[in-house]
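ugh ok fine here u go
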Amino acid sequence: QVQLVESGGGLVQPGGSLKLSCVASRLTFNFNQYAMSWYRQAPGKERELVAAITGAGGTSINYADSVKGRFTISRDNVKNTMYLQMNNLKSEDTAVYYCHIFLYWGQGTQVIVSS
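structure:
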């Protein structure tokens, strides 16, 4: 069973930064051939796409308009890991953040932006 484990969430003040990581293990497919994505779900809201990065070098990247210029997605295909650098965090970024690849989801990591 493929496993995705997110980490790096926590409580941060507005304007602060966090870096999320997602490590994939027990893979049954070639990690670097698949696009990966970060989603988030705030209380009472639907899960939304935050950022996505293609496989095979990660040459195509997309961001939700709400995070453009503040968040950066990246991946390390040697380490089977994806990252999300989040800067200038706002209260509206508060959510559980999930990583996704192919058919699989992580368990999520909580991000709380509050003073």
